[in-house]
Amino acid sequence: MEYIAKLTKLKGKELSFESLEDINVERLKTVFGTSNNVEGLITFKDKRALSDKQRKLYRALLNNIYEWSGEPTDFLHEWFKEEYFLDKGEKISTANHSTNSKSDMNELLDMVIDFIFEWNVPFKKGYELLPKNESWYLYQCCKHRKCAVCGKKSDIHHVNAVGMGSNRKKVDNRWREFLSVCRKHHVEVETIGNEAFFDKYKVKGIKLDEDLIKKLRI
Ligand SMILES: [Zn+2]
User: Fold this and answer.
1) How far apart are alpha carbons 16 and 24 in whole angstroms?
2) Mean pLDDT confidence for 162-191
3) Which of 12, 53, 128, 207 is the most exposed place for a label (fewest CB within 10 A)?
């Protein structure tokens, strides 16, 4: 169940929200058996207007798909806008007068990147533009086992290494971070260390959800 709410108070770990929609309490009780102590996920939306950097990346990525498929970028643009509408129930515009936010644009870019990973579209011009330090990009790299640095087939690097003698099965993955890197870059990160590697390639470790950890068998 998803609702949109406004943060009204923030004091340490205590947060108060005012819901902008009517919450279906009955449904909440049916699903969770109670309306107290239900756990949720908070996502803060970046309301800043979408940026030229995002537009440039979007165009470069559509170009990659064009070179691979031969479908004109205008057609691809309309297709992804339609996908966005079907998924979110809202229209998106990438034009200069667009009222869409940075977060909206990241969702659209996420769809394009997902497509590229799913179909193994070769990264060309777009690659150096990819926002390598952004969690959603790094997440896609893990999900599709692509190196976050060069796009080749990857292993998953455990950023916080499992300590000597500790049992992998007992490690609580919620506190661990991962980075998707190919063999060559895996060797490099283990040689020069996380910090130097992150600094050199502008990447970072990210947390993964339990489902993906299970799926990737890491
Ligand atoms: Zn690599």
Assistant:
1) 18
2) 75
3) 12
